[in-house]
Amino acid sequence: MANIVTSVCCVVLAALVVVFAQRRSQQVARIQYEKMGSDVTMQCGSLGDDATVTWKVNGTDVRARQAQDGPRLILMEVDLSSNGLYSCFENPNGERRDQIILRAGTPPKEPVVTCRSNTFPNGFYCSWHLQHPTYIPTDFEVHVKHNQKTLDVLRDPVHKNRCHVKFPQLFSTFKYRVNITAVNALGKASNGISFDDYSIVKPDPPEKVVATPIPKNVRRLEVTWNSPSTWPDVENFPLKYFLRYRPLIRDQWQHVELSDSTAHTITDAYAGKEYIIQVAAKDTEIGTWSDWSVAVHATPWMEEPKQITSTTEAEVILETTPSPAPPSAKPQLGAPLGGSSALLWSSHLLLASILLSVM
């Protein structure tokens, strides 16, 4: 008898657990991905066709173009504004029976794929992107082959749409084949490229570019730089450089190509004009030029204007400069007269004496 009671209790407990799990699963929101522009049907849990329910989105009434068919909600031509948390409540007691997160999006189109070796001869990296957004989570599958062998791919920890591959051999006669497949809940699309190892070599730009004026040379600038730190073997795979510079007052660049030197003296700068300077790098035998380095600004040496450095110089200047008499200066009575002024005064006295004698 005890065994029968125990068995019945276990069965009842199991049934309760199942019911609880079903109800709990109905309360956890599930994500439903749908294509933008399509009509979308959302089912309220496992309710039958004769059930009547009320739907809300983000806690408010559903205002989008819609129709209801028993426990189903039909949205017309969904778009991004249709996204949200939809909840359904069974009538008449209003118990919530299901929750659905609607995410409208698009299936991916072919990704754009590019590959480049900035660490030659160690390896290369490939990056990819979609030209059009999907609005929903999209993953990428990466496959790289060489001579019919699948190569190991290391996904970049920082750039999610980038991977790194080591060269299995250099200057191979077999091409590399990289295939990228974009996948999301609404579909998938693939694209691939093929290339020779030497065709994708492109160093990073030179680093630590510095332009320094040369004392007492008003038309010269000394420019120095470092090879890119990502280039692993400059001795066996040397780089050549391309220097460009121009004064800020002009738009036209002047160019200088250098073999393997990391310094150059500009000798034709305009005196007193600020210059902008950049450098690019390239493997001496293969590949293409790097992007330009970060621009630096510099102005050739300028002679400072001479300044008075002592009071003696000022005194000499004052002593050697004549002081003109004020234009309004007049002789004072009783003051000694000289030159033409004295002669004029004597003439006046003689005229006065003649007039008195006549009278």
Short description:
With 359 residues, the protein is α+β, with helices and mostly antiparallel strands. Helix content is 15%, strand content 37%.
Keywords:
single chain; 359 residues; alpha+beta; Immunoglobulin-like; 3 domains; 4-stranded antiparallel sheet; 3 helices; 37% strand; disordered C terminus; signal; Ciliary neurotrophic factor receptor subunit alpha; Ig-like_dom
Would you give an account of this structure?
- This protein has about 350 residues and is of the alpha+beta class.
- The chain has three domains: about 25-105, Immunoglobulins (Immunoglobulin-like, Sandwich); about 110-200, Immunoglobulin-like, CATH 2.60.40.10; about 205-300, Immunoglobulins (Immunoglobulin-like, Sandwich).
- The chain is built from three helices and 23 strands.
- The protein is elongated.
- The model is unreliable at about 10, about 15-20, about 315-345 and about 355-359 (pLDDT under 50).
Task: Give the secondary structure arrangement, pairings included.
Layout: H1 2-27, E1 30-35, E2 40-43, E3 53-57, E4 60-61, E5 66-69, E6 72-75, E7 84-90, E8 95-105, E9 112-116, E10 123-129, E11 139-146, E12 149-150, E13 154-155, E14 162-166, E15 176-184, E16 187-195, E17 207-213, E18 221-226, E19 239-247, E20 254-258, E21 263-266, E22 275-283, E23 296-298, H2 311-319, H3 340-358
Parallel strand pairs: 1-8
Antiparallel strand pairs: 2-6, 3-4, 3-7, 5-6, 7-8, 9-10, 10-14, 11-12, 11-15, 13-14, 15-16, 17-18, 18-21, 19-20, 19-22, 22-23
